[in-house]
Amino acid sequence: MNTRRRLGGVLAVLCVVLGTVSGCGGGSSPTAPTSVASTPTVWKQATSATSNAVAATNAFREYSAVTRTPAVSIVINAQPGVGASLQNWYSVGPALVSRMFSYSPYAKPVDVFLALDGTWVRDAILRNGWPNKDADEFRTLLNTNSAGTAWAAEVGFLAVAASIQGNSQTPGHEFFHLVQMKWVGNVGSPDGSNIPNWFWEGSCVFIGRQIAGELGFEDYGQARAKDASTASSVTARLIDVKSNDRNGVRPYEIGFIGVEYLVANIGMQKFVNIFDDYAHTRNFESAFARATGASLDEFSSAFEASRQTLLGR
Ligand SMILES: [Zn+2]
């Protein structure tokens, strides 16, 4: 299971052993313009899990074909003994995410620390010029990594427990947390009081799986089917899956299916516009309604009506 922790000033995103990750928090300045109200959305009844996946994947591919920000320089810092495949995942996955969205660029390269232990990651973070408190916080995270596999720090680096590795959606997932924090700050939280975790984490799993599929790390359909199977155990309505803590419902897999359904219906730009609007209004429900052209309740009704189909049941 998975928790997010606010450690000092750094907002850490947790990636659980099963391959999902959690969110981050922060308070950076929004960079996106206020979005205008969309035309009303008519939610389609899903006819099959596959057709929904194809529609969302097509929307993602069309959007990701455009470079909106120069790709950031990713610097891989690998502890001796870390395998080449993990280093490759973290070289190319974050790079693709970094160029497909608009956000204020980083002043320095984004470090990725692939660590086997906390002592090494602390020293490496310090050696690369990051603050002491970040180094200490991530040493603790690495030393207690039974709850996660990867974390995103708002200041602009990723740290990965390479001994666990996680699954192949993690590189894109974690970098998208950095993008989220660029847009709206470090507002992810275990209780989901700012942005519910089905959307905060579900967005990251969706981006992570799309990136992994696009780059050939995994087969999207197979990975999706596995996540859908996990999500089938969730009985709560999607929009009620707000928290992300060890004792509650996992937001990752059901959130992924929810965001996939969302993108299949409205495309990527309106999905991004939810964050844009939230950056200005700090109200998720109204941001969702303004960006998508439909209320959260209308979306919820449509999703729940298609839920069993989307889960492949
Ligand atoms: Zn995450």
What does this entry look like structurally?
With 313 residues, the protein is of the alpha/beta class. It has a single domain (6-310), classed as Neutral Protease, domain 2 (Orthogonal Bundle), CATH 1.10.390. Helices cover 49% and strands 8% of the residues. It has ten helices and six strands; from the N terminus they run ββαβαβααββαααααα. The chain has helices at 49-64, 84-100, 118-127, 132-143, 170-184, 197-214, 220-231, 252-281, 284-292, 296-310, and strands at 6-7, 10-11, 74-78, 110-115, 150-153, 157-161. The strands form two sheets. The protein has a four-stranded mixed β-sheet, with helices on both faces. Strand 5 and strand 6 (157-161) form a beta hairpin. The longest helix is centred in the C-terminal third of the chain and has 30 residues, at 252-281. The protein is globular and about 50 Å long. The two termini are 25 Å apart. The model is unreliable at 1-34 (pLDDT under 50).
Task: Tell me the radius of gyration.
Answer: 18 Å
- CATH fold-type name: Neutral Protease, domain 2
The number of domains? 1
**Side-by-side strand order of the widest sheet:** 3-4-6-5
Report how far apart the termini are.
25 Å
> Given this structure, which CATH class is correct?
Mainly Alpha
